[in-house]
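Case study B.
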Amino acid sequence: MSRFQKLQHQTRDVIHRGFDRHIRLAVTGLSGAGKTALITGILEQLLYANETQQLPYFKVKQQQRLNGCRLHTSSNWQVSRFDYEGAIDCLTTDVPRWPQSTRDVSEIRVEIKYKPHRGLAGRVLDTRKLTLDLIDYPGEWLLDLPLLQLSYDEWSQQQQRLLKAELRHKLAESWLTKVQTAANAASEDKAEQQLRELASGYRTFLRQCREQKLLLLQPGRMVLPGELEGAPALEFFPWPLSQAIPDAWAKRLREKYRYYQQHVVTPFYQKYFKHFNRQVVLVDVLQALQNGEHHFAELQLAINELMKSFSYGNNSLLKRLMSPVIDKVALVATKADSIAPQDHQKLTELLRVMTQKQRQELQFDQIPHQVFSVAGIATSQIKKLSNGTTVLDGINENREFVRVGAPEVPNAIPTAADWQQGYIYPQFYPGFTAQNSPLPHIRLDQLLEYVLGDKLK
Amino acid sequence: MSDPRKLTYYSVDEPAVEVSDTDSMPEQAGHEPGSGQAAAGVNSGRWGKWLALGLVVALTAAVIESVLMVIERFQQNIFLGSLWAVGFGVIALALLSFMVRETWLLQKLKRRWKKQSEAPKPEQQLQLLQHPDLEHRWQQIKQPYWSADEERERFEVDVLSRIDQQATRIISRWAAEAAAMVAVSPFALLDMLIVMWRNQRMISRIAELYGVKLGYWARVRLWRQVFANIVYAGLSEVAVDLGAQWVSAELLTRLSTRAGQGLGAGLLTARLGYQVIELCRPMPFEKVKKPGYLKLQKDLLSQLKSVLPFVYKSRQTKAAATSEQEVEN
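Model:
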């Protein structure tokens, strides 16, 4: 019986896809970019859409054509459900906190029921449904996707370039000497053992990098292994030295790398990422600004790498059924609640400049895209002092109510002198109660309208 | 490691206001004479100056004359003198207050035109509109994080468009009435009078809707501006609108003469009305689509049909026959 049900579900999905009534939204972002908060925010706004005045830009609601939204079981029964209720609980308990960072893949499905007003559907149908799938996953794993297009040697070269950067070099120094000495004493019979040790050394290095808030950490499973903890699949590393790889190691490293590609990354990609047809790219620009020049550059590089691994194009009927591609992209600067509203424009502009290259490519492929500054869940209140200073009221990490002068956002990519000075942004914590629902947001309605609006006509 | 970067913290007890409340600024009285739209500044020229001078001299003479007269009367009889004095006083006062009101209203209209081009804030616009219900609505939807552009967009789409809708409804009703009246009126002079009268009423209603009070001169000014716009700026628009609808739909050939006149009067009335909307609106049309004629024409025709059963030539005989039948019944 349940098998039949499952089949039924999947058939319906295919039909929906064929009729273009199914959106799989790729919420793409590195770890800490705010994916979970954004997904929670989107769900919160959709589920409470008819009870709030907060969504003026969401046209289907504004034109009073929205019947409602409902959470629904997803057709992919192997994936755990995104814990929306848990996240809301976290945000609204007695001691509200941010939901834990994501450690595994989860999925959630929302059905949006509305009255169509355009086209044939508007004349024939009373109500119509749109299915929206949202998928949450650890941002660390996302960075594995670029590996699919790189051979081991190409990847090694890329990593060698990265290792030349000052901060990374310093962190990797001890590991590099270890590799050097071990490489000199490389032998066929001890190879397995040596590689395992060096791989664990590489893993320690990656973790240190992560503590230093570096972003481009590959392979992602080494940082957050999930079910692969301690598995031999992870016993490899990029070749960091300019000298050639010892013969005894070369074959093994390449083999492991290929295995990782084929048996770890590819299934991940196939299962979750292949069927996306809309994308939201989340970028925590403010955090990168605060972390400094090096991090900022790395963020740019990481986004660049990431966006390469998605396929963009126009969805024709056949393509929709077989292998959908992303036909609309929203580039989103998150955590807009930690700056003054008059700086949102600057933040958007900054992200626009940062993603210039990718935007040009999208432009070339005629993929609609737009840049937003958003907060999935807004944790600060904007106030003005009598002397005109804009301040942000919020709760800091010690659960104290604080009032912070709105920090500055640079107009363009900061210069060396600007980096000397540095930037800092407040980190607010949620301070909601259950009465606050739907939780406040910043500009989610515009994002929703952009991503979903054309399917809700 | 000392960090030069620092967040500034403020005392929580210091009074701070929600951003949404601080923006309401008092209306500033910045106005320049002869500003605003180019077409408005009709040059009265050299003769106007002489004429004004003559008028001023004559007026002064009249004032002196009347003062002298009143004094004379006082010498004759104190009672008669005071009666004259009171009479003149009342007239002077009435004139003065009329003039003050007129100039004030005219200035207000001019100021609005000037403001229209300056991208006014929603709060300023609300002050001009004087609709408490809309003010309330705006307070409800306004989000503190919006940029000025977003605010303007939301204000136009969610608040101002409601007034636009009301105004369009008024226009279509008034236009339909004018069309019907012209269609049934027996002679041309009456047509003209009807159009003038209806348009006058309509303009006042629309202006009122947008919070514009019209005095005599303000009204004249508005009319002048409306006509100037129609003649100078709107001519091509008229050509497009009328041309597209009249000619392309081969309507002209199918309409009876009466109905054609009526439709013409109706469309002209509507055009005037749309011009008035544009002039009275506190901001130009940006995100909201300008009201158009497409639906209006349909309304007009259906209205005409109900008044004149023989709107279409081709159906003329048939329609006449049915109407006769109805009469018989």
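Chain B has 13 helices and two strands. The remaining cases will be described in the next quarterly update.
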